[in-house]
Amino acid sequence: MFLRPSHFRHPEFRRGVRDMLPVLPGFAAWGLMTGVAMVNSGMSGLEATLMTVLVFAGSAQLAAIPLIVAGAPVWVILAAAFCVNLRFVVFSAHLRDYLMHLPRLERLLTGFLTTDLTYVLFVQRFPAPSDAAAQRLAQQAYLAGNCGLCWANWVGSSLIGVALANFIPTSWGLGFAGVLALLGISCSLVTSRLRVLAAAVAGAAAVAAYAMPLKLNILLAIAAAVAVCLLLEKPGMPQAVPPKAKESGDAA
């Protein structure tokens, strides 16, 4: 399975944990307020708990909650969550060569536990896949430490928010720390001029269409950014190199 004794003993497991530690407070605040928001939106404690454990997608949850409160049609809620999470299609395509040697169940579990930040940290640590057994073990150990700690932090903080929803007013604004964490992740992914343009188009479209009902400005922003990239991207364009590509030599 995803966590094996060989993963725990490997130095890269501890490296993955260490790399995740600096951002845990921001994610904990974000998870706490997400738990509070779910209960305050009208969900029961059981529903909020199940959504926290089964969904594990903070941005999709935050996109869906206002729509649930507004009584939006189910298809709108599902479409919003789907569009918000489309970026994981790109992540999974990139990680395919790293993970295809694993059993299907383990690949599915790894995909479920992978988040924006764990993806960014992983590709910075291991810029290229490898066929060497030792390197593959190192990569899996790093993912186990990184993703495992991220999941535990998010679920734990969200469940605390669910439990304390009646005592923590949303006006505290603790979720802003989580927004800042997500903003940092987004900025670290903007590694080419095309990505800068996509981010600018998405931001401008979201602000310009802010008055649209049911948070449809989010869907419009995503569609606008994707359309611009499809129009401008040329076949065979060189891919952006992760910022820490030069550090891969010590990844074994």
Automatic annotation (TrEMBL):
Membrane-crossing segments per the record: 20-39, 159-182, 194-212
Keywords per UniProt: Cell membrane, Membrane, Transmembrane, Transmembrane helix, Transport
Membrane-related topology note: Multi-pass membrane protein
Cellular compartment(s): Cell membrane
InterPro entries assigned: Brnchd-chn_aa_trnsp_permease (IPR011606)
Protein family: Belongs to the AzlC family.
PANTHER family, per database record: INNER MEMBRANE PROTEIN YGAZ (PTHR34979:SF1)
Name of protein: AzlC family ABC transporter permease
Gene source species: Polaromonas jejuensis
